[in-house]
Amino acid sequence: MEDDLADLFEPQILDRGYGYYLDGAVQNLRQTATQITAEVRGSQRYDVTITLRNDSVMEMACDCPYAEQGKSCKHMAAVLMAAEATNDATPTSSPDQSAQAQQLVAQATPDQLRAFLSRTLASDRTLMTQFKKFMTSSTTSVAEEKAEIDDICASYADRNGFIDYQDAESFEAEIQNYLADDLETLVVEHQDDVAFAVLSHLYLKLDTLDIDDSAGEIMEILINGSDLWRRVIKQSLLPVKRQIFTWLATQVQRPLNAIEEDVRTLLFDQGFSEQEFLEARLALTATMIQRFEASSDATDWDLTQWVLYRAHTLTAMQADDAVLEALYRRYQQYSTVRNDYVDFCLRKQRVAQAISLLQEGKRVNRDLPGVVVEDSRRLAKIYQKQQDTANYRQELWCLVTQYHVADLADFKAYKATFSPATWPAQRTKLFQALQSQADPAKLAPLYAYEDLKPELLQAILAEKGIAGLQKYGPMLKNQYAAKIIRKYAQYADQAIISTGPRKHYREIVDLLREMARYPLGDLQAQQLIQDWQQRYPRRSAMLDELARFKS
Q: Are 528 and 488 in contact (CB under 8 A)?
């Protein structure tokens, strides 16, 4: 093969590909004059296809996440190395070449060998990787794995250690490859102590990484990383599990950035169900609650999260109900704690108490619409389950007319409580109440659902824009075409007054095409075009776009 691999791959990719090649990960290698195919196996299998022309690489493909970003991956590099090794296996050198090499080494002094090896390794990263593999044992080295993570981070960072937006996606893909291959292998092979050491190093690295991950690259890495954490925690023997718990408990007590939520979740996950961990978690929650209560900088969210962690730990320890209730009552002014208290009451079949808590929540949080809607919907579900139709209806009425005005899902639920015979009268009453609470346009989805076409027409005509017209116009086409066309014409005629780029005029022509779908709409569109051509004869972009109008 005539290509220099250094021209096809980044140095760090070439190094990792060489590691795969040395490990024998390339399997089912097939090569013709125009194509190389192979499988690269680690914890997962990736298929690689390389297209050749005149013994040069024309195209490479791999189904790993990194290659799917349009990058040349380590699996491709490993396959090319294996292909070259296969070709080189054909004798092309003199039979005594091996003996000559041995003779040269024998003649050299140790200092000469060290000097030559140092210079050669310093100038050839591939040989450096090969020498590392030769010098290390078969047992996975924590230091090497940490170094590989550091190398990946460093290879995408600038001299100030910053990974910019353009490189963030490729960085994520390579870390995801590392998780799927190297770390997955550690987990599958039950090297749990090593996997823990590497995962903890990676997470601390990610937490302090200076990166523009506007597309959520760090979050995507953490999603897969958390899965590996859970598997390690689940399968670890107690000594390793204790190390993991201690590390998580230590980290959660110091300021964290990207990994904070993941560390908390892992610490209080079901993986630490042994009594010693439950007791340690309970002590930790007491410490953290006390800390946040004493801090002037702490947020309500910080405090309530730890209150909930304490409540859930007490539940897992099967603590007395009185202990849990004392905790809930102390912090029930916070909506998240109150909601957890409601769950507790429902589990204990204390329905009346749950209802009272939710009603109180609506009162104290009347200035927080989102919280009121959530409490009201929970109340409605409880009333429905209790077959309390009167209160269920009343709660739905409040939702539709006050808390979440004109919400279609709540409207449908309210309607379902009435018979077909009684619904029309109730609907009239409901719409009368809504007309004083909502703009006509907001009622359009309800009118459409009820097939109230005159009311729907008035609602969409009252809009300043034409979004409702575009959405509901087709269902009114047969009865109200003239009024719909008039609305389109008024809107388009107002829009044409403003000058703008060619895109502005294209959008207006699109409106004319929509208008032309209605009876006599094409005629109105043509009249508008003629009028605009006369009013604005110097707008060349407008005239060009109008000339493209076809009904």
A: no
Q: What whole-number distance in Å separates Cα of residue 289 and Cα of residue 307?
A: 7
Please give the structure tokens belonging to residue 379: 């109340």
The pLDDT score that the predictor gives to residue 345 is 97
Q: 3-class DSSP state for residue 30?
A: strand
The whole-angstrom separation of Cα 23 and Cα 129 is 12
Question: C-alpha distances in angstroms, 125 versus 116, 246, 446?
Answer: 15, 38, 68
For the chain, residues with pLDDT lower than 50 are 90-93, 137-138
7-18: burial string, b at 16+ Cβ within 10 Å, e else: ebbbebbbbbbb
Name residue, tokens 């039979």: 95
DSSP-assigned states of every residue in 408-467: HHHHHHHHTTS-TTTHHHHHHHHHHHHHTTS-GGGGHHHHHHTT-HHHHHHHHHT-SSSH
CB atoms < 10 A from the CB of 244, how many? Answer: 23
> How many angstroms separate the Cα of 6 from the Cα of each of 1, 21, 361, 485?
13, 16, 66, 66
Rounded to 5, what percent of the chain is helix, strand, coil? 70, 5, 25
User: Which pLDDT value is given to residue 151?
Assistant: 93
Q: Which residue has the tokens 């204990």?
A: 348
Q: Residue 270 has what pLDDT?
A: 83
**What does the alpha-carbon distance between residue 384 and residue 361 come to, in Å, rounded to a whole number?**
19
Residue 59, strand partner residues: 51
| pLDDT score recorded for residue 91 | 46
Contacts of 376 by beta carbon, 8 Å cutoff, 6+ apart: 358, 362, 395, 398, 399, 403, 404
Grouping H, G, I as helix, E, B as strand and the rest as coil, residue 326 is helix
Phi, psi of 171 (to 5 degrees): -60, -45
pTM of the model: 0.70
